[in-house]
Amino acid sequence: MKLIFSLKAKITVVFVFLFILLILAAVPFYHMQLMKTNENAIRNYERLAMHVKKERLAEDKVIEYFQNLGFKKVENPEQILGSARKPMLAREGFELLSLNDSYFLHIRAPHFRVLFQDRTNKVQRSYIDLFVILFVVLLFIFIYYLIIKNINATEHQLKSRQLFLRTVMHELKTPIAKGRIISELIDDTKQKNRIITIFEKLNFLIDDFAKVEQIVSKNYNPTIYSHTLASTIEKAIEMLMLENSDNILCENISDKKINVDLDLFAMALKNLIDNGLKYSIDTKIIIKEEQHQLHFISLGDELKNPIHAYFKPFHNDTKLKNHGMGLGLYIVNTILQLHGMHLEYEYLEKRNIFKVVLKK
After folding, report:
1. What is each CA distance from 264 to 45, 120, 162, 195, 290, in whole angstroms?
2. Residue 352 pairs with which residues in a beta bridge?
3. Range of the domain at 205
4. How many whole angstroms separate alpha carbon 240 and alpha carbon 243?
5. Would you tell me the crossing angle of helices 59-68 and 39-55 to the nearest 10 degrees?
6. Residues 177, 28 share a domain
7. Which residues make Cβ contacts (< 8 Å) with residue 76, sequence separation at least 6?
8. What is the C-alpha separation between 332 and 272, in angstroms, rounded?
9. DSSP string over 267-322
10. DSSP secondary structure, 36-96, as one string
11. CA-CA distance, 194 to 223, in Å (whole number)?
């Protein structure tokens, strides 16, 4: 029962996060589309106002000119000007405003001012984008319902974990891709880059989950090539997608060649680095090469159980804060075994030292 509640909590957080991202991307996108639908009308009003300015028409001629085009002179302009929002367009000699789905053209000549309402042209509002957004929201809710329903129907812990990973990976790929495309349309560059980065991180995590699921289900065939030790560590740090990696200190790392599946081995190193950063007192970790070993050293409390206890999937310490799913060291150990390596642990001078013992 605890497993089911844990899965529900995790998937709920993921969907709430994606929903917030969708709203952040949708609001500026809608406003941008609204402005685009009015561009032709704005250009037309600008042309008319520039004609008045160029011909230097008197007030009576201006009124006659616009009335012939279907405009109506507003007798109480103060009420409209006070109620309208920020002008859609403001140039020397005129302003374009909108109120209650109507366009108003405010002519501001040196010796007179007059406000006209366009009775032939209404503000064009496109609701197609809102329908698309609503559809995506309903799709999210439907997917969420399907996943929760499947989790509730699952009887075995391992199967429910695997079902969760597979379902989430499959169902979230399309919404994430669509969200990434929508975010490209945001005008604010800083906000756009931030949202794009978040979607890319989510996509990377989904791919990461795919490998985790294959490892847990014993359904992964490693692709072994020769790589330098330094390049595998660099790949692991890159997989963390940190904005700043200054808290990761590398010492004595050589270009020694090792035969590994780069993505898989880097994932194991990434988990060790992530654990070190997450649980260390000073949020720092040292990666040091010692003969045929890689040491991951961080300042913190000693493990409560022997290291082999953490090699079990979904171990008991998952009740602790920031625990994840209890798969971290299990994945590390499984990946190392696939490469003929193993993991050792030592606690020395208030420092946790995880040792990846490489093949000689």
Report:
1. 62, 65, 19, 28, 22
2. 298, 347
3. 2-33+127-216
4. 9
5. 150
6. yes
7. none
8. 8
9. HHHHHHHHHHHHH-TTS-EEEEEETTEEEEEEESPPPSS-GGGGGSTT-GGGGSTT
10. HHTHHHHHHHHHHHHHHHHHT--HHHHHHHHHHTTEEE-S-HHHHHHHS-S-SEEETTEEE
11. 34
Q: Where are the beta strands (DSSP E) in 139-240?
A: 225-228
* Residue 202: strand, helix, or coil: helix
The CATH number of residue 256's host domain is 3.30.565.10
Which residue among 122, 142, 167 closes a domain?
Answer: 122
Q: Is 258 helix (H, G, I), strand (E, B) or coil?
A: strand
Instruction: Based on the fold, state whether residues 267 and 308 are members of the same structural domain.
Output: yes
172 in the same domain as 238? no
Does 143 share its domain with 282? no
Please give the chain's pLDDT, 360 residues, in tens.
444 446 677 777 777 777 777 777 666 666 666 666 567 677 888 888 888 888 888 889 988 898 898 899 988 888 788 777 777 778 788 888 888 778 888 888 888 889 998 887 766 555 566 676 777 778 778 887 777 777 666 565 555 555 555 655 655 666 677 676 777 777 777 777 777 777 777 776 676 666 666 666 666 677 899 999 999 999 999 888 787 889 999 998 999 999 999 988 998 999 899 889 988 999 899 999 998 899 999 999 998 889 888 887 655 554 444 444 456 788 888 889 889 999 999 999 999 999 999 976
Q: How many domains does the chain have?
A: 3
The helix/strand/coil state of 357 is strand
Q: Which of 122, 144, 170 is at the close of a domain?
A: 122
Are residues 102 and 43 part of one domain? yes
- Read off the pTM: 0.48
Question: Do residues 143 and 265 both lie within one domain?
Answer: no
Same-domain pairing of 315 and 291: yes
Tokens (6 digits) for 249: 């200190």
Same domain for 178 and 87: no
CA atoms within 13 A on the CB side of 40: 5
Q: What share of the chain is helix, strand, coil (3-state, %, to 5)?
A: 55, 20, 25
Residue 203: name the closest of 178, 229, 230 by CA.
178
Q: Which long-range contacts (CB under 8 A, 24 or more apart) does 305-311 make?
A: 307/343, 307/344, 307/345, 311/343
